Amino acid sequence: MKFDDLEIAAIVPCHNEELTVATVVADLRAALPTATIYVYDNNSSDDTTKVALEAGAIVRFESRKGKGNVVRRAFADIEADVYLLIDGDDTYDASAAPMLVETLLSGPYDHVLGCRVDTQDTSSYRPGHAWGNSMFNRVTSFAFGEPVTDMLSGYRVFSRRYIKSFPANSEEFEIETELTIHAANLRVPQIEVPIGFKDRPEGSESKLSTFRDGFKILGLLGHLLLHERPLLVCNLASALSLALGLVLGLPVVADFLRTGVVERFPTAILAATLVMIAVLMLGVGLILNGVLRGRQETRRLFYLQLPATPTR
User: Fold this and answer.
1) What is the mean pLDDT of the chain?
2) What is the pLDDT at residue 94?
């Protein structure tokens, strides 16, 4: 596949990846000869920069620790027609890059998600990662109405207007969650493509902390749910508060109708308070949903100001 008429930027975030970055750069160079390969060194203490330069990549630096900070910097600085994002740990099949780019152009799409498929006899996922990823996929698919198979994948291809409309607020590994939900919120044309996935080479260590980063992803997901689906969150909170209020209050009402006396004032006050909270939460949800509608229209108008993806 030839893409001579397109400016393609391959972005490779790296932190201490001297053992793998040369392979990733070489594989990308072989797969996409016309692409400009940018390796972003994120405070590496090894020879990542030296190895990347020797492999022929353009090396840039981001001093703020975290993959999200690297992506934010790269998306702001680099100008291209097509953007490819791939981790520098040599776990993804870089030879699939032309197929991902061709898929983006054939739609045309704004976002192509490379969904990981094990290429080894044993699972390449660390213990607990497959389960956590599956859980996040289900929650995101339900809450944002967009089916997602592998929302935590670090192998993606984007159009220019997706990149330049993406706020990139995340700092660390939760950036993939934000990328996925941004596509769902804008309702951009997107597609998932299976790609090969394997273990890190021997001697290379993962920078992902299962529990620390997992809780960060969960926290971001909760924040984005409230920020981008306020009516859903507030309706659920309202329904829960109303249900508790009715469970506590109906027996008090029944006693009053039978005896004419309110014997459990604390329970009655608590039940009435819960019902009032339920009504207030419903009102808050409606107000926040109106604010969200204005943000959505602004995002959409900004997105439409940027050029569409070239077609094949």
Assistant:
1) 89
2) 94
